[in-house]
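SEVERITY: medium
COMPONENT: batch folding queue
REPORTER: lab tech (J.R.)

DESCRIPTION
The queue accepted two submissions in a row. Attaching both inputs and their returned C-alpha coordinates so the on-call engineer can compare them side by side.

ATTACHMENT 1
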Amino acid sequence: KIKYSLTSYADLTFLIPAGIKLDDPPPLKFLIFFDSIQDRINAAKYLQAHLPPDLQDKVKWFNSDMTTEFKEAEVTNLIVGDTWGLCTTETFGMGMDVLDMALVVQW
Protein backbone atom coordinates (compact mmCIF):
# COMPACT_ATOMS: atom_id res chain seq x y z
CA LYS A 1 0.00 0.00 0.00
CA ILE A 2 1.33 3.44 -0.95
CA LYS A 3 1.98 5.64 2.11
CA TYR A 4 4.30 8.29 0.70
CA SER A 5 4.55 10.46 -2.39
CA LEU A 6 5.42 8.38 -5.45
CA THR A 7 8.35 10.68 -6.22
CA SER A 8 9.89 10.06 -2.79
CA TYR A 9 10.32 6.29 -3.46
CA ALA A 10 10.08 5.79 0.31
CA ASP A 11 7.59 2.96 -0.15
CA LEU A 12 10.37 0.91 -1.77
CA THR A 13 12.54 0.77 1.36
CA PHE A 14 11.01 -2.59 2.29
CA LEU A 15 13.25 -4.08 -0.41
CA ILE A 16 16.45 -3.22 1.48
CA PRO A 17 16.75 -4.46 5.08
CA ALA A 18 17.48 -1.59 7.47
CA GLY A 19 21.09 -1.58 8.65
CA ILE A 20 22.26 -4.17 6.11
CA LYS A 21 26.03 -4.77 6.24
CA LEU A 22 28.57 -6.23 3.86
CA ASP A 23 28.58 -9.67 5.53
CA ASP A 24 24.78 -9.94 5.90
CA PRO A 25 22.79 -12.31 3.70
CA PRO A 26 21.45 -10.57 0.60
CA PRO A 27 17.84 -9.42 0.43
CA LEU A 28 15.38 -11.16 -1.86
CA LYS A 29 15.99 -10.49 -5.56
CA PHE A 30 13.69 -7.85 -6.98
CA LEU A 31 12.60 -6.10 -10.14
CA ILE A 32 10.80 -2.76 -10.11
CA PHE A 33 9.10 -1.73 -13.35
CA PHE A 34 8.67 1.95 -14.19
CA ASP A 35 6.99 3.78 -17.06
CA SER A 36 9.53 6.61 -16.88
CA ILE A 37 13.25 6.22 -17.43
CA GLN A 38 13.91 9.14 -15.05
CA ASP A 39 11.82 7.50 -12.29
CA ARG A 40 13.80 4.32 -12.79
CA ILE A 41 17.09 6.15 -12.30
CA ASN A 42 15.82 8.15 -9.31
CA ALA A 43 14.46 5.04 -7.58
CA ALA A 44 17.72 3.13 -8.08
CA LYS A 45 19.70 6.02 -6.62
CA TYR A 46 17.26 6.21 -3.69
CA LEU A 47 17.71 2.50 -2.93
CA GLN A 48 21.49 2.72 -3.39
CA ALA A 49 21.55 5.50 -0.78
CA HIS A 50 20.03 3.03 1.71
CA LEU A 51 22.97 0.68 1.28
CA PRO A 52 26.52 0.94 2.63
CA PRO A 53 28.96 2.28 0.00
CA ASP A 54 30.42 -1.20 -0.65
CA LEU A 55 26.95 -2.56 -1.53
CA GLN A 56 25.51 0.28 -3.57
CA ASP A 57 26.39 -1.46 -6.83
CA LYS A 58 23.97 -4.28 -5.95
CA VAL A 59 20.99 -2.20 -7.16
CA LYS A 60 21.08 -0.86 -10.70
CA TRP A 61 18.88 0.67 -13.36
CA PHE A 62 18.33 -1.10 -16.63
CA ASN A 63 16.62 -0.07 -19.87
CA SER A 64 16.77 -0.32 -23.64
CA ASP A 65 19.31 2.53 -23.88
CA MET A 66 21.97 0.36 -22.25
CA THR A 67 24.49 -1.48 -24.39
CA THR A 68 23.83 -5.10 -25.25
CA GLU A 69 26.97 -6.06 -23.31
CA PHE A 70 25.75 -4.24 -20.18
CA LYS A 71 22.28 -5.82 -20.40
CA GLU A 72 23.68 -9.33 -20.87
CA ALA A 73 26.14 -8.86 -18.00
CA GLU A 74 23.44 -7.52 -15.67
CA VAL A 75 21.04 -10.36 -16.41
CA THR A 76 23.86 -12.77 -15.58
CA ASN A 77 24.70 -10.78 -12.42
CA LEU A 78 21.05 -10.90 -11.34
CA ILE A 79 20.79 -14.64 -11.97
CA VAL A 80 23.96 -15.46 -10.00
CA GLY A 81 23.15 -12.99 -7.20
CA ASP A 82 25.85 -10.38 -7.79
CA THR A 83 23.06 -7.87 -8.47
CA TRP A 84 20.16 -7.90 -6.01
CA GLY A 85 17.68 -5.75 -7.84
CA LEU A 86 17.00 -3.80 -10.99
CA CYS A 87 14.92 -0.71 -11.54
CA THR A 88 13.80 -1.17 -15.10
CA THR A 89 11.32 -0.44 -17.82
CA GLU A 90 9.18 -3.02 -19.58
CA THR A 91 12.11 -3.89 -21.86
CA PHE A 92 13.57 -6.15 -19.18
CA GLY A 93 10.50 -8.35 -19.11
CA MET A 94 10.70 -9.09 -22.82
CA GLY A 95 12.40 -12.44 -23.24
CA MET A 96 14.02 -12.53 -19.79
CA ASP A 97 13.77 -15.57 -17.57
CA VAL A 98 15.04 -15.31 -13.99
CA LEU A 99 13.66 -18.33 -12.16
CA ASP A 100 14.35 -17.27 -8.55
CA MET A 101 12.98 -13.72 -8.78
CA ALA A 102 11.28 -13.15 -5.42
CA LEU A 103 9.67 -9.72 -5.77
CA VAL A 104 8.28 -7.84 -8.74
CA VAL A 105 6.90 -4.33 -8.25
CA GLN A 106 5.02 -2.22 -10.80
CA TRP A 107 5.60 1.44 -9.88
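ATTACHMENT 2
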Amino acid sequence: MTPLVSHGPGDPPLEDHTDSNTKKEKVSMTSGKGKMCPSQKQNGWNLCAHRWLKQIKTNGTMDEFCIYYSSLDEEQRKEYDNEVNTLSCASATGMFYVLA
Protein backbone atom coordinates (compact mmCIF):
# COMPACT_ATOMS: atom_id res chain seq x y z
CA MET A 1 0.00 0.00 0.00
CA THR A 2 1.18 3.50 -0.81
CA PRO A 3 0.94 6.04 2.05
CA LEU A 4 -0.67 9.35 1.11
CA VAL A 5 -0.47 12.70 2.88
CA SER A 6 -3.07 13.40 5.57
CA HIS A 7 -5.02 16.66 5.27
CA GLY A 8 -5.12 17.65 8.89
CA PRO A 9 -4.23 16.89 12.48
CA GLY A 10 -6.07 14.00 14.04
CA ASP A 11 -6.69 12.24 10.74
CA PRO A 12 -5.25 8.78 10.22
CA PRO A 13 -2.46 8.33 7.69
CA LEU A 14 -4.01 7.86 4.30
CA GLU A 15 -3.32 4.66 2.42
CA ASP A 16 -4.37 3.35 -0.95
CA HIS A 17 -7.05 0.74 -0.15
CA THR A 18 -8.27 0.15 -3.69
CA ASP A 19 -8.31 -3.63 -3.16
CA SER A 20 -9.98 -3.39 0.24
CA ASN A 21 -13.44 -4.74 0.98
CA THR A 22 -14.07 -1.96 3.51
CA LYS A 23 -17.72 -1.33 4.28
CA LYS A 24 -18.99 1.76 2.48
CA GLU A 25 -21.13 4.31 4.29
CA LYS A 26 -23.64 6.92 3.15
CA VAL A 27 -23.39 6.08 -0.52
CA SER A 28 -25.80 8.54 -2.08
CA MET A 29 -24.72 8.22 -5.70
CA THR A 30 -25.86 5.45 -7.99
CA SER A 31 -22.32 4.53 -9.03
CA GLY A 32 -19.07 4.72 -7.11
CA LYS A 33 -17.01 4.56 -10.28
CA GLY A 34 -17.43 8.23 -11.25
CA LYS A 35 -15.78 11.31 -9.81
CA MET A 36 -16.84 12.14 -6.27
CA CYS A 37 -19.25 15.07 -6.30
CA PRO A 38 -20.47 16.03 -2.81
CA SER A 39 -23.86 17.67 -2.50
CA GLN A 40 -24.44 21.18 -1.14
CA LYS A 41 -26.07 19.81 2.01
CA GLN A 42 -24.19 21.06 5.06
CA ASN A 43 -22.99 18.04 7.03
CA GLY A 44 -19.72 16.50 8.17
CA TRP A 45 -19.69 13.95 5.33
CA ASN A 46 -19.79 16.68 2.67
CA LEU A 47 -17.28 18.93 4.48
CA CYS A 48 -14.87 16.00 4.67
CA ALA A 49 -15.53 15.18 1.00
CA HIS A 50 -14.87 18.76 -0.12
CA ARG A 51 -11.59 18.87 1.78
CA TRP A 52 -10.57 15.41 0.57
CA LEU A 53 -11.17 16.45 -3.04
CA LYS A 54 -9.36 19.76 -2.63
CA GLN A 55 -6.36 18.58 -0.62
CA ILE A 56 -5.91 14.85 -1.14
CA LYS A 57 -7.46 13.35 -4.24
CA THR A 58 -8.62 15.97 -6.75
CA ASN A 59 -10.14 13.41 -9.13
CA GLY A 60 -11.15 10.91 -6.47
CA THR A 61 -14.13 8.61 -6.92
CA MET A 62 -17.04 7.94 -4.60
CA ASP A 63 -15.62 4.47 -3.84
CA GLU A 64 -12.25 5.95 -2.87
CA PHE A 65 -13.87 8.56 -0.64
CA CYS A 66 -16.08 5.96 1.05
CA ILE A 67 -12.98 3.94 1.90
CA TYR A 68 -11.26 7.04 3.28
CA TYR A 69 -14.29 8.19 5.28
CA SER A 70 -14.85 4.74 6.76
CA SER A 71 -11.21 4.77 7.94
CA LEU A 72 -11.95 7.77 10.17
CA ASP A 73 -12.93 6.96 13.73
CA GLU A 74 -16.16 8.20 15.29
CA GLU A 75 -14.43 11.13 17.02
CA GLN A 76 -12.94 12.39 13.76
CA ARG A 77 -16.32 12.20 12.03
CA LYS A 78 -17.91 14.04 14.96
CA GLU A 79 -15.29 16.82 14.58
CA TYR A 80 -16.45 17.37 11.00
CA ASP A 81 -20.10 17.49 12.14
CA ASN A 82 -19.22 19.95 14.91
CA GLU A 83 -17.28 22.16 12.50
CA VAL A 84 -20.22 22.28 10.09
CA ASN A 85 -22.49 23.33 12.96
CA THR A 86 -20.03 26.05 13.97
CA LEU A 87 -19.73 27.29 10.39
CA SER A 88 -23.52 27.23 9.95
CA CYS A 89 -24.04 29.27 13.12
CA ALA A 90 -21.35 31.73 12.05
CA SER A 91 -22.93 32.25 8.64
CA ALA A 92 -26.33 32.77 10.25
CA THR A 93 -24.87 35.58 12.35
CA GLY A 94 -23.11 37.20 9.40
CA MET A 95 -19.65 35.83 10.17
CA PHE A 96 -18.26 33.99 7.17
CA TYR A 97 -15.45 31.49 7.03
CA VAL A 98 -13.83 29.85 4.05
CA LEU A 99 -13.98 26.06 3.98
CA ALA A 100 -10.49 24.80 3.31
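NOTES FROM REPORTER
Residues 1-6, 16-30 have pLDDT under 50 and may be disordered.
No errors were logged for either attachment.
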